[in-house]
Each structure stands twice: as structure tokens, then as C-alpha cells.
Amino acid sequence: MRSEEVLKSSISRFLYASPLTGMTMSEQWLDEIKWTDDGLVPAIAQDAETGEILMFAWMNRESLKLTAELGHAVYWSRSRGKLWHKGEESGHVQTVHDIRVDCDKDVVLIKIDQKGGIACHTGRRSCFFNQLDSGHWQSVAPVLKDPSEIYDK
Amino acid sequence: MRSEEVLKSSISRFLYASPLTGMTMSEQWLDEIKWTDDGLVPAIAQDAETGEILMFAWMNRESLKLTAELGHAVYWSRSRGKLWHKGEESGHVQTVHDIRVDCDKDVVLIKIDQKGGIACHTGRRSCFFNQLDSGHWQSVAPVLKDPSEIYDK
User: Fold this and answer.
1) Is the pLDDT of residue B153 over 60?
2) Residues of chain B contacting residue A102, judged by C-beta atoms under 8 Å apart
3) What is the distance of C-alpha B24 from the center of its chain?
4) Which tens digit of pLDDT belongs to each residue from A130-153?
5) Fewer CB within 10 Å, N side or C side of chain A?
């Protein structure tokens, strides 16, 4: 029993280098996350400077680890079933300044700098542009760039 | 086929009064939400004034409807399997100023005023107090009130 714990601890303390922290890190912090049955955790991306919530996506263990290692946001695309380095198509990379987890350790918050100022695939700054107004969803933010210009390169 | 559409439309346009908007509202806006297979939607609560992200929880259709109707945050407690009027035990009610939904209409954002200044059950202002620092989660926010004082009334 004890040797199993030691083995588990040794595995979880596998070291890797992190540009975000400039230090080698154990994986204990990843073990502490309460992943869903599908191995995912919700992730909220917030503008590090203005506090604006820019988008919401999901991460698996590998994408959260890469986010910390690389210093840019990496999500898990549920629709495509693969890692999604934010900005890989659009160029709208998210530089990560701060990684948080909530009290229950089942939701991640990353504070980021949004390259190009556009986080949403619709060409808007934030994905949360639909406001409930008199019982209807109203778009309250402008399209800054036509999506066809963002993705058809 | 056409009469079915008319019927569906009539049902979805069932009217109710909303103190938040001061108008009667149809339920079309609720029909537009992309609920999970469990009938839920993730909800992010953000301080309406400072932009700080205070908590993350889930809503079902009834709780989101009540949130709009009553003007205070109502979540769905997955652990207790029932509606959760935030503050019902702690008194830490969340007054809702703005309800948003994202581009895919599968994540809700509410901008709120947090009564008592404490959103987290640990007695901290925000649930997102654990910061990744050198490969470890570090609490970076103070406990403002002992949870035993909040809940043992």
C-alpha cells in the first residue's frame, strides 16, 4: 500500500520545464483537478487587463499542461476531438498571464492577452455578445473583422 | 406541418412577467439555449462593477428563467439535485444586472452585484482564489468571513 503511494507520487512528480514559471514543475497540480468523466475541465478566458470575459471552452489534462508549459491557451476541441491551440488558424493567440482554479478545483480561469483583440469566431472581441433584452437575445458588440477574412487565409 | 409549427410557436411564446425587464417575455430565448443532455447550461457570475469572476455554476431551464424573472441568481445544484437560490442559506444574494449568452448559445454569463461581498462558500470574495505558482496551487485571496459564521445561523 505504502509502496504504491510512493510509486504514484513518483509518477505524479514527473518533472517538466515551464516557460510560464521558468521552473521545473511536478504534475501534482494537474492531479488535483477534478476532471469530468470525459477527462475535461471547463475553462474561462478573461482579458488580463480589462477583466472582460472573452470566451469559454474545455481543456483536457494535456491541453492544460501545455497551456502552462507554453504560456499560450490550448483547449480541447470537443467537436473536432483534438487539441486546439487557440489562434492556430486565426492567428488570434492568447498569451497566458495567470492560471486559476476555483474552490472545488473543477473550473479553470485563465487571464490572457488576446492577440488581434478578437477572441470569437464571429469576429467579435468576446463570445458573450448576446444580451437578454426584453425577452430576446440582442447582439450588443460589433463584428471587428469578417470571419471569412480571419479563417480563409 | 405548418399547424405544428404554429402550435410550437404558441407554446414557446407563453408569456410571463419579468421584474428584470418590466415586460412580459416569451420563452423563445430559453428555447434558443443549447442545453446539455442533462438539460443544463454552464453559468459564469461576474461582478458587474469590477469585472471580477466570482463563481461558476450550472443552470437548468427553470433556474435561468427564474434568474431573469426574479432578478437574482438561481442555479441548479447538481449535488443536491434541486434549485439553488444563491444566498438562500448564506444571505449572499446575487442581484442580476445583465444576462448574456455566448456565440454558440451554450454558456451563460450573468453580471451581478454580490450582496455581502462574498460569493465563495469558503468565505472568500471569489471562488477563483487558487493561483498556479511554480507548479503549485496557492491561495491568493483572504477568507473574509469564517464559513461557520456564514452557514451556521
Assistant:
1) no
2) 55-56, 127-128, 130
3) 21
4) 999 999 999 999 999 999 999 865
5) N
Instruction: Examine residue A105 and state whether it is found in any structural domain, yes or no.
Output: yes
B11 or B149, higher pLDDT:
B149
- Asked if A50 and A58 count as a contact pair (C-beta separation under 8 A), the reply is no
Q: Which three cell numbers stand for residue A57?
A: 471552452
ipTM of the complex model: 0.85
Which among A30, A130, A136, A150 is the top mutation candidate for probing chain B, defined by the most B β-carbons within 10 Å of its own β-carbon? A130
Inter-chain touch A25–B128, beta carbons under 8 Å: no
Torsion of CA A151, B101, A43, B119, to 10 degrees: 160
A100–B42 CB contact, under 8 Å: no
Residues 6+ apart with CB under 8 A from A19: A69, A70, A71
Q: Is residue A27 part of a domain?
A: yes
Residue-range definition of the domain harbouring residue A59: 3-117
State the nearest Cα–Cα gap between B103 and chain A, in angstroms. Answer: 5
